[in-house]
Design brief:
- The complex is a heterodimer of chains A (312) and B (138).
- Chain A contains 13 helices and no strands.
- Chain A is an all-alpha fold.
- Chain A has one domain (3-309).
- With 138 residues, chain B is α/β, with parallel strands linked by helices.
- Chain B has a five-stranded parallel β-sheet with strand order 2-1-3-5-7.
- In chain B, helix 2 packs across helix 5.
- Chain B is globular, with a radius of gyration of 14 Å.
- The chains are: A mainly alpha (312), B alpha/beta (138).
- At the A-B interface, helix 3 of A face helix 1 of B.
């Protein structure tokens, strides 16, 4: 693979430009559906773009006593990780051949999907603000709580695909939801996705009513635009990652019809996320840890792994 | 008109500052943000942090306690920023005109871009004022 083709992949097609366009569209769908749930009309289609351009034009303020370089670099770290994760997942979806990708790209994707949360923690601690520090500490506890069931749930499709840790082979070798074990693991992973996206009921880290916006409280201008873009990108990448691993992905093999079916699967997951976010209250951070480490999520994921090892 | 200002007029995020209001203007302002009026149609959002804000909505005549804090909040908001004086007290001290505790109306502390009179102004009046301000800026 030549460096120029690699740059094209990362910056344009399944990478930055493509993910940017879909992130904006998904952010609009999120706000529009939320508005309809609340019996409102909601913002126009280009509203996320207006917000983004406006934030790029605003003054960037670095708080007094903050770690300047880290404060400004943390949003870029999160943004690049989300872009790379999207490139990796879409590569496996667009050209699903067993030889495509590299051994262990599933593990790399899992790491890349964690980096945006880590960058939020770094940025919050770098901003020398006690509210941001509190938000960062909650975000840390949140990562501790949801990563365990998330990774346990990801073992199920690996087992079902015969022990392969390549996204391309998992995609071809399974449709995990056709087994009971796959369905259980999928449900656990959807709950973890909600926490990974930092949405209600698991948004204790940025609780607007108590912490204003948690780790983002000191951010303004272009870094804030990068943070919001990262969050919208994650809203797009996480459902695509989950259907890639658990539900057959979006393949181009079966022509237009399979692309439409794949897109509907992503939209279904997105609507589940939005409805969960609009119909639940926020839970405390200790309740979140108990929920994720308790029998309902981790227990269910472990049960799914046992079932898949038994061949169900 | 520059792209920067055009985008600002399409998504003004407001930050609510109470500098000693009797809470009537605050209730009407919160009423203007309810689903009934749905100001998100115009991209208006209420934000919790001053660093995210484009417009400060100030309610109440400024008391001596609140004056330095209002000045500090204004300096903390990233440029370009707008100030909306909402209610009679914010515009002209209102019924607290001769109060010993008053530092002055909002425009003696920070520059004001638009005045919305009324005691309290109706939500429709607040939305109308914001629209007029955005037309003036654009």
């Amino acid at each position: 693979m030549s460096p120029l083709w690699m740059a094209f992949l990362i910056l344009v097609f399944p990478g930055f430009a493509f993910t940017f366009a879909f992130a904006m569209a998904f952010a609009w769908i999120d706000r529009k559906v939320t508005a309809r749930v609340q019996w409102r009309v909601g913002p126009p289609f280009l509203q996320p773009i207006y917000d983004f351009v406006k934030l790029l034009g605003k003054e960037v303020i670095v708080p007094l006593g903050g770690a300047k370089v880290l404060f400004l670099l943390a949003p870029l770290l999160g943004l690049s990780a989300a872009t790379l994760a999207s490139t990796l997942v879409w590569q496996a979806n667009l050209w699903p051949r067993p030889g495509r990708g590299f051994v262990g790209d599933l593990i790399v994707a899992v790491y890349l999907l964690t980096i945006p949360s880590l960058s939020v923690i770094l940025g919050g601690f770098a901003s020398n603000n006690r509210v941001a520090s509190l938000g960062s500490s909650r975000e840390m506890k949140m990562i501790l709580s949801y990563e365990l069931p998330f990774i346990v749930a990801l073992i199920v499709p690996i087992v079902n695909a015969g022990g392969s840790i390549r996204l391309g082979e998992i995609l071809l070798g399974q449709s995990a939801v056709s087994h009971p074990s796959g369905i259980l693991a999928f449900i656990a992973a959807i709950l973890c996705m909600q926490a990974k996206l930092g949405l209600v009921p698991f948004d204790a880290a940025e609780a607007e009513t108590e912490l204003m916006s948690g780790p983002f409280v000191e951010y303004s201008g272009a870094p804030l635009a990068a943070i919001r873009l990262t969050r919208s990108m994650m809203l797009f990448v996480m459902p695509v990652f989950l259907i890639t691993v658990f539900w057959g992905g979006i393949t181009t093999e079966g022509g237009v019809l399979s692309v439409i079916v794949g897109s509907l699967k992503v939209l279904l997951l997105l609507v589940i996320v939005i409805l969960l976010r609009n119909t639940s209250p926020r839970i405390r951070i200790d309740q979140a840890i108990r929920f994720f480490w308790g029998p309902f999520v981790t227990g269910m994921a472990v049960l799914a792994v046992v079932l898949s090892l038994l061949g169900a | 008109m520059s792209l920067k200002l055009k985008a600002l007029c399409k998504s003004p995020w407001i930050f609510h500052v109470n500098t000693g209001a009797c809470n009537n203007c605050d209730i009407e302002l919160v009423d203007a943000l309810t689903p009934r009026f749905d100001v998100e149609r115009f991209g208006i959002l209420l934000v919790g942090s001053i660093r995210h804000a484009d417009a400060l909505v100030v309610t109440g005549g400024v008391t001596r306690q609140a004056a330095p804090r209002l000045k500090r909040l204004y300096e903390q908001a990233p440029k370009p920023r707008l100030v909306i004086a909402c209610g009679s007290c914010a515009c002209s001290k209102g019924i607290f005109h001769d109060g010993y505790h008053m530092a002055g109306p909002v425009d003696q502390i920070v520059p004001v871009d638009i005045y919305i009179p009324g005691c309290p102004p109706k939500p429709e009046a607040i939305i109308d004022g914001v629209v007029k301000l955005l037309k003036k800026v654009a």
